[in-house]
Automatic annotation (TrEMBL):
It comes from Streptacidiphilus cavernicola. InterPro entries: Tad_N. Keywords: Membrane, Transmembrane, Transmembrane helix. Residues 14-61 form the Putative Flp pilus-assembly TadG-like N-terminal domain. This is TadE/TadG family type IV pilus assembly protein. The keyword Transmembrane helix applies. The chain crosses the membrane at residues 15-35.
Length: 155
């Protein structure tokens, strides 16, 4: 018993294999978007946390000379920036070191962190590292329930 192959059947030979290959590639790309998209969001959260912590480290640098002279409580901007930069130098996002900058005034410090997220799945499709950025700031507000009278700078 033999079965004859018609010309219509012969032209469709292997069509399922091509369909499976296309669907598998699309599924890999979709899973890459989910995995690496989530990884990027985690890296952004970590960069924000590093920036917040660096700002807090800088926010602890009080200008003692101004305080002793009765000029109120204020930040030492140079010391605050140095403390934030030192914190950034020792920090990582994932397994990657971070770079960043800190800008301080006598009342606030703002920190920006730059890092890189290394893709896991999307690297298979030519998408390499993705830059991430985090922001944090700290404002000097002495007192527990309200502003402390020591913060006034006079009449």
């Amino acid at each position: 018993m033999s079965t004859a192959t018609t010309s219509a059947d012969a032209s469709e030979r292997g069509a399922l294999s091509i369909f499976v290959a296309i669907c598998a590639t699309a599924l890999l790309m979709l899973s890459g978007l989910v995995i690496d998209g989530g990884g990027r969001l985690i890296a952004i959260e970590q960069a924000d946390a590093v920036a917040d912590e660096a700002a807090r480290a800088g926010g602890q640098q009080i200008d003692r000379a101004a305080l002793l002279q009765g000029k109120g409580i204020r930040l030492d901007p140079q010391a605050a920036q140095a403390a934030a930069d030192a914190y950034l130098g020792a920090s990582t996002v994932g397994n990657n070191s971070v770079t960043g900058s800190a800008v301080a005034t006598d009342q606030t410090i703002t920190v920006t962190v730059n890092a890189t997220y290394h893709t896991t799945m999307l690297g298979l499709f030519g998408f390499g590292d993705i830059p991430v950025e985090g922001h944090g700031s700290a404002r000097l507000v002495p007192g527990v329930t309200g502003p402390d009278p020591l913060t006034s700078t006079g009449p």
